[in-house]
Amino acid sequence: MVNPEPVKNRITAGSDMDYVGICPASALDGEPEGRRPSDMLPGARSVIVFGRKLIAGSVQAKFRQIEDGKTNVMGSYSAHSFVLSLNHLCMNETYEISQYLENTYGCFAVPLTNNVLQGVQPEGCYVPFFADPLKAGLPVDIYKAAVAAGIGEMGWNHRVLTPDSGPRIYLCAIITDLEFSEYDKPYSGDRLCRPEECGVCARACPNSSLDARESEQWGDGELTCRVGKLDVNGCAAACFGFLKSVNPAASVVVENPHPDDPQLEAALKKQFEAPGFQTLDHLPMFHCDRCMVYCPVGDWDVKYRQTGLSGW
Ligand code: SF4
Ligand code: SF4
What we know:
The protein is of the alpha+beta class.
């Protein structure tokens, strides 16, 4: 069995990660067949989860888009907080850490894709990964591994909340057959999300895709909690910018703000065929995220409240 501390130090000091936690692979035994760590790596013993905080200035740019309609600053958020640079940075670091594990311990390390589509087939149609990780095509639900590894608590907004940065984080994971001498436990600090007192995420949701009162079960076993009832396709319509209320410049619009799969697929097909449509990230899914950027957990008050925000 391996001492987890040198591995964690390598990840934080060597790869500059802000978060790291390790859970036993069995924490995801309740996942559907094909989405358990042992389905990807026979003999899997552990899942290592790590990640970075979003850059505050880039989140600030997102507020300028939402609050002031300054769409020209959206690139800062989409490129640096949503996918592009974070995706590349974390993919590269996931590779480096995997190779370090294999070279140092002679184990297998399966680096996972960590956010939107990277050569995966979604189940149904495309949706944001936080809204439905498996439908979005993530091989393993990294959020479940993150909660099992003590990185944070699951919020009403379907995001992992950390005590210091709330949900404004980006997570990656590696499955390995290494067995550690100790594992992290799920977060047990002060409760971070109190939807009955807060409700900011549901109020900020532009098309009522996230219910303020009705909840649904998230996770199983000791990970079980209640999160807000989410209309996954409605959320996808907002994130893809198919709603004028979210993306006033939208050239592709869905008539039904809560589309079914065929309606969402039709809009996506039109989007792909739109003249001048180009994105390095395959699909522009960065148009909303209000339930993440406005969540007051962590350093939100200090970093953002004084920057001219409306009173969510
Ligand atoms: S905005 Fe409030 S209710 Fe929503 S996830 Fe954050 S803390 Fe929970
Ligand atoms: S991303 Fe936007 S549409 Fe989706 S739940 Fe959050 S606030 Fe609502």
